[in-house]
Design brief:
The complex is a heterodimer.
Chain A lengths: L6 H21 L3 H20 L4 H20 L3 H5 L4 H5 L4 H5 L1 H16 L1
Chain B lengths: L1 H19 L2 H19 L4 H37 L5 H4 L17 H15 L2 H12 L4 H8 L3 H22 L1
Helix pairs in contact in B: 1-2, 1-3, 2-3, 3-7, 5-8, 6-7, 6-8, 7-8
The chains are: A mainly alpha, B mainly alpha.
Chain lengths: ~120, ~180
Amino acid sequence: MKPSVPKSDSNRRVIDAAREVMARRDRELDGETLASLRCARARALEAQRVRAPVWLPAGAAVAAAVVVALLWTRAPEPEAELFAGGEWLLEDGMEIELMEEMDFYQWLAEEALDDHSS
Amino acid sequence: MNQFLASVERRAFTMARLAVGNPDDALDIVQDAMLALVKNYRHRDRAEWRPLFFTILNNRITDWHRRRNTISRWQLLRERLVGDSAEDAELDPGDLPGPQAAAPDRALISERTLDAIDSAVGRLPLRQQQAFLLRCVEGFDVAETARAMSCSGGSVKTHLSRALATLRKHLEDLR
């Protein structure tokens, strides 16, 4: 019959053995693994170095907003030029296709005028 | 930070390797944990780095097991549907060193004990393994272990008690 060992002593043996096992595993890591761990550490630290300061994205966003605002207020609006004098088309709810074919209708009207005059 | 990471990288890898069973995934987990610590906590007090690092590491290990379980369930489903069992060997988590052919020498008894514990710790259920390694090997207190495992102190004690019972049994079987 096995002599009974107090639980606390057994736990102590288990813990001591486990600590030694882990230390042994740490010691016995091969060179390739250690090199990989060094690389992993270097990559992590490099990410810290190349990380932009926190204020930089915010500053860039503000600068971009200022540029956009300037362009918006100064540049002529292409749509406004395109439809200058033709706001009635939109106000009357006419179809976009109709506006796109205005050249055709203009040509048609001119043809009709020519026919009439001749 | 470099010194700190150098001081924990071996142990982190050993724990991850024990938990996931293969060195490549263990290395990925350690690197993820290092990056997360540097990215999110490098400005914190140095004394906080160790518990934070092992918390991140254990979260990554737990995530790995969750993903693995999901993949395993899909593989199992696929095998049931297709009848393919060729990948059974890959699903076996027991990637641990086998028992060494040691001579029956009294001087090697402690080596036998170490091998038995090594094998037994590797075969503990994940949560028991985490509780045991953090609490008994790394020396975290119950509250720190609970934070690292994202559970209550009571759960830590339960996992630890079960782990110790299993490991004691392995040692008793050797006698």
